[in-house]
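Box S1 | Example of a co-folding query
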Amino acid sequence: MNHKHPIEPHVTPEHWAGESAPATPQKRAVVLLSGGLDSATAAAWAGREGYALTALSIDYGQRHRVELHCAQAVATAFGISDHMILSVDLAAFGKSALVDTAMPVPKCRSVAQMGSGIPSTYVPARNTIFLSLALALAEAREADAIVLGVNAIDYSGYPDCRPEFLTAFAQVARLATKAGIEGKTVEILAPLVTLTKAEIIRLGLTLGVDYAITTSCYDPAADGRPCGSCDACVLRAAGFAAVGVLDPHIHPGRSCIQPA
Ligand SMILES: [Zn+2]
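Box S1 (continued) | Returned holo structure for zinc ion
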């Protein structure tokens, strides 16, 4: 695997499936772990690549707080003992349906509709904030990389999920840190950025990810049960349908859904 490329946009699951065990098991990465399908897959990928993992989850006031339970479940499943959950109250800023319960979450949109415009579930500058926190943690831990599960194919059109943003942030990591100035650049690895949701799921299944303990819904019920009709639910369902397997998260008793 080419660790030198900051984003790895052209790598496919087929490449990964055919590779041997990693040769550099001492490398460390900070993985942004949301509790969602994508970040769990990205974490599994990083583990397979030989990185020792520090996980970072952000409690930012999201209405879908069940994802923090899922993030803990994923960290436990992967044996990640170094898992930090930081509180950063983005709900204080508002302007997003994910942190302002007075704003409705868009429902029943087609994938084509998702491709036009940026929806109200966009959280202002969220990934810039998250990556900045991850960069600080990575530098403090003397980590080699930050791994995140952003995706710019089957997604809601958020500008801070696109390769251009990641390339720009990699430049920030080089210029804005003591580590970067001294030549130990923290790489930004987004192995899923150009994969479809189905490709991500296939990769994760290959890597043994238990998707029962992940959640994707933007607007879950109080017990964490997914709504089934927000953008994230629609994309997740389409991905599992394309792969031809059932989504274990929606099966009672096999998920991180918390009793009410
Ligand atoms: Zn949903």
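Residues 20 and 56 are 28 Å apart (CA to CA). The longest strand covers residues 52-59.
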